[in-house]
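Before relying on records like the one below, remember that each one covers exactly one chain. Contacts with other chains, cofactors or solvent are not represented anywhere in the record.
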Amino acid sequence: MWPWGSQTTTSSSPTVAAPAPAPEETKVSYFERVVAEEERNLRLVHPTPEETPSCLNLFDTYLSCNSMRSQIKSYYRSGEGTRCSQKLEDWKFCMGLKWLEPEERREQWIRRRAEWWARRRVEGKCSEDVWEIRREPLENYPRVLRLEEIEQRGMF
């Protein structure tokens, strides 16, 4: 499958914030609770070892990370180039699991991916955070054109 195919996406939405920790809950136990939630989600998304990404798929994802399309999207969203080191680490991790049984490999992959999603949820970082939310509508938008302007532009 090509790196931009549907099999390269996983789990929950990165914009979903983790539920607030209970007052008596420590940071470690809160993080572990979020990891457990993500593991449960990933087990539903990837019910069998065949559903997890292959090492070749992860390598393709790493290579596509440096493509012009990825660079432009990253500059647009965050103002800097792509950081592909995590994708390289995912591929290396997968290669290290090659000698495990398929079910063990799936469990290791799910744990690693769940920790990644949990860190994103707990830290609350998202590529959409570079934009500020508008609290009030823009003034005079959408602008209503007068009949003279419409006729002048030849729109009527």
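The chain is about 50% helix and 0% strand.
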